Recover the amino acids of this structure.
């Protein structure tokens, strides 16, 4: 089940987002992020819903395929890591704990039988789902 997407933005509320290594183009459209719909998009949305049900604070809402051909996700504002001052030890510990929690929660995630994953680095074993685009 997809959540209701936020209200439609105005034409001037669109921004090309930089960074990331998974999608060719990513746009912020109002309070959403739009990226190309891939065969793995339904499985990723299923994982995000699982993480949110488990109370994971860093998983954005997945709104589904809107418009057709684009995955629509909740926009989470922030600064790219390469544009920030170096992180403090406490900040690094917080990021480490967040990623550890992500990995712990993926161990009991059971995607549907038609799950598709697209990964630059295929896992040797399927016991942990990794982020592969981590930037604190």
């Amino acid at each position: 089940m997809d959540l209701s997407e936020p209200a439609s933005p105005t034409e001037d509320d669109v921004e090309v987002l930089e960074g990331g290594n998974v999608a060719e183009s990513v746009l912020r459209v109002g309070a959403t992020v739009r990226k190309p719909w891939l065969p793995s998009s339904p499985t990723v949305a299923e994982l995000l819903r699982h993480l949110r049900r488990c109370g994971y604070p860093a998983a954005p809402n997945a709104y589904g395929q809107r418009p057709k051909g684009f995955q629509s996700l909740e926009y989470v504002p922030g600064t790219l890591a390469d544009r920030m001052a170096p992180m403090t030890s406490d900040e690094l510990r917080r990021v480490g704990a967040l990623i550890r929690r992500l990995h712990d929660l993926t161990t009991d995630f059971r995607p549907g039988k038609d799950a598709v994953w697209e990964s630059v680095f295929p896992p040797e074993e399927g016991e942990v789902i990794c982020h592969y685009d981590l930037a604190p």
